[in-house]
Amino acid sequence: MKNDYAYRLVVESPLGAMLIQGSEKKIQYLKFVDAETDADIDGIGQADWFASCTEQLQQYFRGERTDFNLPIDPQGTDFQQRVWHALIDIKQGEVASYQQIAIAIGNEKSVRAVASANARNPIWLLIPCHRVIGGDCALRGYAGGIERKARLLALEGFDFNIDDLGLSNAKTKLILESID
C-alpha cells in the first residue's frame, strides 16, 4: 500500500474496498485493499477527480460503463508506460496474452518483462491488467487474487464457474471457457 499521496479516496465495491490515491488533478494509484486498516486512511481535502471516479467505478460495477474517462498519471519507467498504454487498449469483453502485449509494444521477445510491468501496474481497473491472461488461456496470477480477477472478467462477460473459484489460489490456472 502506498501512503505518499496527499489525496486519498476509498470506494466500496462488490469485490471489496478500493483505495484510490493521487495528486489534486490526477489518479496515480488504485488497488483493492482487503484489511479495514488499509482502507481507513485520511487524505487532505478533496481532489478534482473524487466525484467522477466514484461515479464511474459504481457505474462499472453496475454494468453500466465499459471504459473509464478519468485523469490518470501512473508512475513508472518508459517500458512500463508502454505496457500500461497497451493494457488500456484492451477493451472490456476482450483479453490479451502477455505475448500479444509484447508484440503490441514492438518487442515480441519481452514477454517476461511485460508480465513484470503488468504486475507493477499502479492503477488497477483503470489500466486493466486483469484482462491479461496466459498464452494457453489460463488466468495466471493477479495481485488482487485469482478469484477477484475471475470475478472482474465475469462482470465483463466471460463465463466462469464462480462457485469453484473459492478453491483457487494465486498459482491456480483457471481456463477461460471462451476468449473469442
Care to describe what's here?
This protein has 180 residues and is α+β, with helices and mostly antiparallel strands. It has two domains: 7-61; 78-167, Orthogonal Bundle (Arc Repressor Mutant, subunit A). It is 29% helix and 12% strand. It contains six helices and five strands. It has helices spanning 36-39, 50-61, 78-88, 98-104, 111-119, 146-155, and strands at 7-11, 17-22, 27-33, 96-97, 132-133. Strand 1 and strand 2 form a beta hairpin. The relative contact order is 0.13. Mean pLDDT is 85; it is low at 166-172.
Can you count the helices? 6
Please list the strands of the largest sheet in the order they lie side by side: 1-2-3
Q: Could you name the ranges where pLDDT drops below 50 across 5 or more consecutive residues?
A: 166-172
Order of helices and strands: EEEHHHEHHEH
Tally the beta strands. 5
Predict the CATH topology of the largest domain. Answer: Arc Repressor Mutant, subunit A
Structural class assignment? alpha+beta
Biggest sheet features: 3 strands, antiparallel
How many structural domains in the coordinates?
Answer: 2
Helix percent reads: 25-40%
Q: Whole-number radius of gyration?
A: 16 Å
Task: State the fourth-level CATH superfamily of the largest domain.
Answer: Winged helix-like DNA-binding domain superfamily/Winged helix DNA-binding domain
Strand content: 5-15%
